[in-house]
Amino acid sequence: MQNVPEEWREGWEERGGGGGEDGRTGEMLVKRKVDSEMKGEGKKNGGSRGEDAEKESLMMELTRRVQKIIKESSWWERRGVDCSILAAAFLALPPAFLLLGSSQVLSFSAGMLLMGVAHAVITVKGTHLASHGSLSESQAWGKFWAVFFIEICGSFSEQAGVHGHIKMHHAHTNVIGLGDSSVWKVPFLPRTVYLFIAPLAVPIITPLVALAHLKGHSLALVVRTVLMVTLGLYSQYWLLIHVSGFLSPLSALLCMLVCRAMFSVPYIHVNIFQHIGLHMFSPNNRPKRIYQMTHGVLNLPRNPFLDWIFGHSLINCHVEHHLFPFLSDNMCLKVKPVVSKYLTEKQLPYQEDSYLNRLHFFFHKYQELMVFAPPITELVGVQ
User: Fold this and answer.
1) Residue bearing the bigger pLDDT, 188 or 25
2) Ramachandran category for residue 185: left, alpha or beta (phi over 0 → left; psi -120 to 50 → alpha)
3) Bigger pLDDT: 222 vs 40
4) pLDDT 10s digits, 229-286
5) 295 to each of 40, 59, 173, 207, 358, how far by Cα in Å?
6) Which pLDDT score, from 0 to 100, does residue 205 have?
7) Which of 129, 134, 56, 64 has its CA nearest to residue 338?
8) Separation CA 74–CA 200 (nearest Å)
9) CA 68 vs CA 4, 9, 181, 196: distances in Å
């Protein structure tokens, strides 16, 4: 494991491990996790090296196969494709602002749609990749892009976003009370309101939640986050007034809300469909990493629209993303055949389901999934 990619080592130590509020997140580095499994299993099996090596090699062998693909991939495949998609989204903004200034309904609608798509690509795909440090091999540039995408573009706190997503959700996927996706639950809302109406308020709720997360942090962090979030919101407002020619502040704010909420319904759906309703684990009896991720994560099928807007790692490569979190969307797609084949060969779950099936499932089992506490799974025989 000496040849673990430097970007993973630095990424896990920078964002997921190394003490902080929860030292266990350091186990998420593949090398460290595998080493800990080796020691733990050695004790349990009375030092039986044959059985030890067989169990331990599951994640190690998969890591080697993925590593081989990464080494054979060009910069364009590793980062270029996704950076180009994000660049295209930014390039779509000028014509979107100009079209929004048109008095013709068709042109105005095209501008609204174009800005909504561009905003979703930047604030979902961009913030997700930036939070994982997948846009640059440099830690300094990684931090810059995280602040830029999460705070300026996404109107959220970079510190809270990275902590919640990397150090909690990824480090403790489907572990009750830690990374169990309960942050997305709003039990007092009826299912129809939660699934189809409440998500439209995400653009309003997001900056308010960001402000709430700043409590107890340093003044410098609070000032930076408030300034960055304000800069992002005001920039769009200013451009709508001075470039698109909106005549009233209210109409500009309404346009901002519509564009920012355009894909918030599928955004909420994706966040709950791929974890809630699957196996949940106790903090004191969690399975090994490869079992945890294969039992607690689900892929949605290829969807040309959502694949490009949200990114492969959030849609059809979510299992791959949880196994190798610092891979870009394009690299998750590239290693997908290898990962799915390997898990099938080892008789491990490779869970997939359609968007409509999951929506039907959540709609009819809303109380069980989104209101009541989830049952805890114990994977007997694989510990």
Assistant:
1) 188
2) beta
3) 222
4) 999 999 999 999 999 999 999 999 999 999 999 999 999 999 999 999 999 998 888 8
5) 21, 14, 10, 33, 16
6) 96
7) 64
8) 39
9) 10, 16, 32, 43
Structure tokens belonging to residue 272: 């709950």
Crossing angle of helices 49-72 and 329-345, in 10° steps, is 150
Half-sphere exposure of residue 342: CA atoms within 13 angstroms, side-chain side: 20
Model pLDDT for residues 202-220, shown as the tens digit of each residue: 999 999 999 999 999 999 9
- Report pTM: 0.84
b/e 24-55 (16+ beta carbons within 10 angstroms → b) = ebbbbbbbbbbebbbeebbeeeeeeeeebeeb
* The one-letter amino acid at 279: H
pLDDT of residue 58: 87
**What is the model's pLDDT at position 6?**
40
The whole-number pLDDT of residue 22 equals: 40
Compute the mean pLDDT over every residue in the chain, rounded to the nearest whole number.
86
What residues have CB less than 8 Å from 220, skipping those under 6 apart?
none
